[in-house]
Amino acid sequence: MKVFISYRREDSAGYTGRLYDSLRGHFGDDNVFLDVSGIDSGRKFADVIQGAIHSCDVLLAVIGPEWLTCVANGRRRIDDPGDLVRTEILTALNGGIGVIPVLVGGASPPPAGSLPAALQPLAALDAHDMTDERWAYDADRLIRAMERLAGTGKRPAVMRSASIAAVVLLGLVIAGFYVSQRRSGTPAGDGTAPGVVEGRTLAGEWQAEVTYDWGAKYSEKLSLSVDGRDVSGTASFLGVPRGITTGSIDGDRITFETRTQETSGDFSQPRDVVHRYRGRINGDTVAFTMQTEGGSSQVPATFTARRR
What we know:
Radius of gyration: 22 Å
CATH superfamily of the largest domain: Toll/interleukin-1 receptor homology (TIR) domain
Number of helices: 6
Largest sheet: 8 strands, antiparallel, barrel
Strand order of the largest sheet: 8-9-10-11-12-13-14-15
Helix content: 25-40%
CATH class of the largest domain: Alpha Beta
Number of domains: 3
CATH topology of the largest domain: Rossmann fold
Order of helices and strands: EHEHEEEHEEHHHEEEEEEEE
Oligomer: single chain
Structural class: alpha+beta
Strand content: 25-35%
């Protein structure tokens, strides 16, 4: 299925980038459309946008705290018939394309009375919350809702039941392990070999002051979750959170990637950029090297992240 993400750059760009990473990891790069150029006044891209919407199965309307109140030329942008976000959502609604409002940053669903008359049907749609604390869980729920809306769900009930049973069984095994550890008087995690770092040591919030090779300095934040050897979460680049992919922990070493896009001159031709992180964990610090591939800078950035 194909997905179109509608958003306001000044309202929810960071959350939208994270959502984009989550969705393309499931549906594939070619099936998730995101306008990365912020071209609210760029009418020359109208044909591209319209074509992408008409070819999609679901449109996600990402709504942050400032979605309704963004102003241009002394009026709310949502009240401007030429507003790109308004046009995107109306095109989907009028074309019979499924629309799901996605609430980020603690935003509330917009009341019908606060919307232009043409957009008021948006208020009647079930909104989906995305929260930092349970992002992966919320993303999975959103994907299932999208597949149901588009009629493309691929997991029959028997498979879901088997998956649930497997999770329950795994939970019982883990619980039994910890009970046996407690009864034997051996704390879980004791006997860890030197150089091995438990996932709970890494999981949490981290912050680093990063100076990039062109002289700019940003306070970057990392939000890390660990499941076995798999690492997920976000790592910000230039202050904007990016979803972590291919993350893993091996002993006291952590590696992962984040992705973004850059434009130069022609906003219709963004470049895919990969940031590869390698770090060594030492208590409440992680010494990182971040190498960028495909971007304008190829000089590695080195920095130390500290637990917040």
